[in-house]
């Protein structure tokens, strides 16, 4: 599904990622953990195509094809989805109208007609229920005045609507209380299938109790310094990152 | 002959054509004297520092139309709000068109200044209200000197205008380059309500200069909503002065949508005379090329316990120039005033300019006054968010511009008008975003 090869990327000529290798197959859940400033969000942004992150070396392939030259919207059309740590507020554009625009633009890029209004409504209703979202919520301006939990639920709602091949969840657990965390994780788990993959980026192990990863990778100073199974997350929770820092001499 | 000289000599002709007993004969004579002494405003004046009229004063404008131009409704239908029932007061090259209009005298007066200034039954009202709020600067005075035609709206005590009123001024080019000077008077008595939509529309590629003055008098608890659609041709320039006097517990809002035209200067002046009032001034400006839009506002808080809200948004592309000069005066007696002013701008190109100048003069000590001004580009991280959802860059930018302007649209009370303006904005931005509002 996703193959990252010796990826070097940075901002303003400062290298943040210093040679990342990562392979994610369809049906898998991977987690990237690491201390603040290790490059986690940079990796998420580089995959989604944020312009200011310059890739100086290496490649990112989605289903065997390099996506480096693609605009963010083209990557989205090809099945990449990023759940933002800090979703943007857009006054005057309702959640419903926003998601309609996003879906129909994606369909247009694929040469498809707009989704029929009835089908769209049914899908919106279905996915809103999955995320336990109130109907009123859908007519509110996108992210304007949303609580932390509402914002993240709205992100996963969009993911449910867009049905990406690869979903990247960037610090989706930050700002969530335990109930919201459960709803969000439950949503992600229900969307998981053998045909898609999830990359969870998190500082803490907490979210991984709900979205159980097949693989855990530890990112430090722009490199993956250790990979393992879900037990690695528990070990990090228990011991913190310092012991690993010493071990790898980072 | 300069335009000024031409105007002064034409004024003599005008005065000779009307009855010397007319209630405004002397007012016109005084006004032309003021204009003659002051002349057209120049950039030397503090209030005109960023707007020069030089480029539009060189034309040999016709002052009075010589021919009557006829218009077919189907050819101008697009300039009206059609999906809601309205009264209409329509002028073609400055002349009232009864054919295109839909006026009334049923409980309220929706008719012409031409009638109000000449018919004896209106004399008493004209004596009390005409030219009483206007400040009498050069452009005001020039309009007063030539005041002949425009909209006259009188909503008596306790009456509600059941339908919005559209005031539309067309210029056809039939009379070559024209200078138009419409004069509107709106009187909303105690507990009355009225909604007005005003538009100046040129139908020709010939140059047009409009110097319009509107006086609005809102008595106790009157509710007046005034919407200005400025989406004219690039050959058309507009100097639009609106003077508003408000009394106790009245609420008056003026929304100005400036999307077209060559040079547009808006003078919007509120005078608050009574307690517990609200004055609302909102504007959206989206211009490009070499267009120029100047908003010059004044809110004069004279009495205590009142509010004013100003919210102006501007999006400027290419070499366009915007000006926001917002003055708030809070007199010593006007304690407990809440005055808010905000002016936010987006410059899409390095060559675009915005001159934003808030002016607060506060003489009372127990007031809340705030003002904020921002100038920036579109938020790139917000754009990335939209793109990451599959929305193309062009549509994403349009969506963000729409969102930016939306706080102003949200207070438009006529749904059909709101929809129309949304579409105008989408068209102006050049993208059909494909979402309903």
TrEMBL record, chain A:
| Origin species | Dokdonia sinensis
Q: Which UniProt keywords apply?
A: ATP-binding, Nucleotide-binding
InterPro entries given for it? AAA+_ATPase, ABC_transporter-like_ATP-bd, FeS-cluster_ATPase_SufC, P-loop_NTPase
Protein name per its UniProtKB record: Fe-S cluster assembly ATPase SufC
Q: Which NCBIfam families match?
A: sufC
> Start and end of every ABC transporter domain?
2-246
Q: Which PROSITE patterns match?
A: ABC_TRANSPORTER_2
The keyword DNA repair is assigned to this record: no
Q: What family does the database annotate?
A: Belongs to the ABC transporter superfamily. Ycf16 family.
The record's section on SUPFAM superfamilies has: P-loop containing nucleoside triphosphate hydrolases (SSF52540)
Q: Which PANTHER family match?
A: ABC TRANSPORTER I FAMILY MEMBER 6, CHLOROPLASTIC (PTHR43204)
Q: Name a Pfam family for this protein.
A: ABC_tran
* GO MF term list: ATP binding; ATP hydrolysis activity
From TrEMBL, chain B:
* Pfam families, per the entry: SUFBD_core (PF01458), SufBD_N (PF19295)
Which residues, by range, are in coiled-coil regions?
none
Residue ranges of domain SUF system FeS cluster assembly SufBD core in the record: 173-404
SUF system FeS cluster assembly SufBD N-terminal domain spans which residues?
23-167
Query: In which family does this protein belong, per the annotation?
Result: Belongs to the iron-sulfur cluster assembly SufBD family.
UniProt xrefs under NCBIfam families: sufD
PANTHER family in alphabetical order: PROTEIN ABCI7, CHLOROPLASTIC
UniProt protein name: Fe-S cluster assembly protein SufD
Give the species this sequence originates from. Dokdonia sinensis
